[in-house]
Design a protein that fits this description.
Elements lengths: L5 E6 L7 H14 L4 E6 L1 H4 L6 H17 L8 E4 L5 H12 L2 H5 L2 H7 L8 H15 L5 E3 L5 H17 L1 H6 L11 E3 L34 H9 L19 H14 L3 H8 L4 H27 L2 H30 L4
Parallel strand pairs: 1-2, 2-3, 4-5
Helix pairs in contact: 3-13, 4-7, 7-8, 10-13, 11-12, 11-13
The structure holds tryptophanyl-5'AMP.
Length: about 350
């Protein structure tokens, strides 16, 4: 069976957007809107799997939607909305809670990292998180999902849920006249530089919304001086930059900063090293700071303008939700029939 090529991705409104979100996700969403049907969501229901102050949740929801648009998504081409406006996400995730197995969820490294020693005390929602994520994607029969490296395991689980649903209901799927599979086996799009941007203070850790050190994360709304300061103070090593990518092996911090440069400049790592190989940090860091500011500052300015117009943002999110529902509702109606729910 052939599925319409359709892209879905989402970001959690649980903190200020940072450079990792931009390079690993948002930046890569933009060109896909010219080749695919694209659906980009602000996943507010995922955010509340850990406590969120309701005012912050709202602010970050608008901020992410604004970042999507400021970075180049066109709300007429792409469907942009927040998850909770399309209730079918919750409905399908419940069905997936009954398809997925406890053991599958318990193996998720993100759950283990977040729950830590405290797994008896985290919310039930945090445990079921990947099932809601599978619902986000499969509610639209999305065929491809652009994400950063840290989401790979969740997407494998999405494929496992799709396969098990297709298998468990194979008889009903065939009887209803679907040629082959009901849900697609969704592809992960996570290649290129900066798929895992690291903390500026520790090249072994990923850059994240919740970091202890203020200087470890570049936020999309940071001003030029702060970006320059953070890059200047980023942990590096004593050596000059190598002339080829292979020379970055074992140099986590150097590899990270060169990867960030490559992604921001739309170049390969080798191209960057052809220019900066043999040069020291005193040359490379100011160049990286200038480049980061030149890319991020116009986006931040546009984000500020957009978030100040709540009426317009509500209109965009409402329109997106309506278009999302138009795709989701017929698929959900099929799912209910397959499962045997009477209506
Ligand atoms: P979230 O909100 O943690 O992150 C949003 C996107 O940013 C990417 N990302 C990074 N990429 C590179 N380097 C980093 N340091 C970095 N940090 C974050 C993430 O990989 C992600 O693409 N579970 C998801 C949200 C979600 C989703 C979905 C994604 C819910 N439903 C359906 C895709 C499809 C999450 O928590 O992302």
């Amino acid at each position: 069976m052939s599925f319409t090529p359709r892209v879905f991705s989402g970001i959690k409104p649980s903190g200020d957007l940072h450079l990792g979100n931009y390079l690993g996700a948002i930046r890569r969403f933009v060109p896909l809107q010219d080749t695919h049907e694209t659906i980009y969501c602000v996943v507010d229901m995922h955010a509340i799997t850990v406590w969120q102050d309701p005012d912050d949740l709202k602010r970050w929801t608008y901020e992410i939607a604004a970042a999507y648009i400021a970075a180049g998504l066109d709300p007429k081409k792409s469907i942009i909305f927040n998850q909770s406006q399309v209730v079918e996400h919750a409905e399908l995730s419940w069905i997936f809670n009954c398809v997925a197995r406890m053991g599958w969820m318990a193996r998720m490294t993100q759950f283990k990292d977040k729950a830590g020693e405290n797994s008896e005390n985290v919310s039930l929602g945090l445990f079921a998180y990947p099932s809601l994520m599978a619902a986000d994607i499969l509610l639209y029969k999305a065929t491809a999902v652009p994400v950063g490296e840290d989401q790979r395991q969740h997407l494998e689980l999405t494929r496992d849920i799709a396969k098990k649903f297709n298998h468990d209901f194979a008889k009903q799927i065939a009887a209803a006249g679907f040629e082959d599979e009901f849900f697609p086996i969704t592809e992960t799009l996570a290649t290129g530089p900066a798929m895992r941007v690291k903390s500026l203070k520790d090249g072994a850790k990923k850059m994240s919304k919740s970091e202890a050190s203020d200087l470890a994360t570049i936020y999309m709304m940071d001003d030029a001086d702060l970006i320059a300061k953070k890059i200047k103070r980023a942990t590096s090593d004593a050596e000059a930059l190598p002339t080829e990518a292979a020379g970055l092996a074992g140099r986590n911090e150097a590899e990270n900063l060169v990867g960030v440069y490559a992604a921001l400049a739309n170049q390969s790592v080798d191209q960057v090293l052809a220019e900066y190989g043999g040069k020291g940090w005193g040359v490379f860091k100011p160049a990286l700071a200038d480049l980061a500011v030149s890319v991020l500052a116009p986006i931040a300015d546009e984000m500020k303008r957009l978030v100040s117009d709540r009426g317009e943002m509500d209109r965009i999110l409402g329109d997106g939700a309506e278009r999302a529902r138009a795709i989701a509702q017929p698929i959900m109606a099929d799912v209910r029939k397959l499962v045997g729910f009477v209506r």
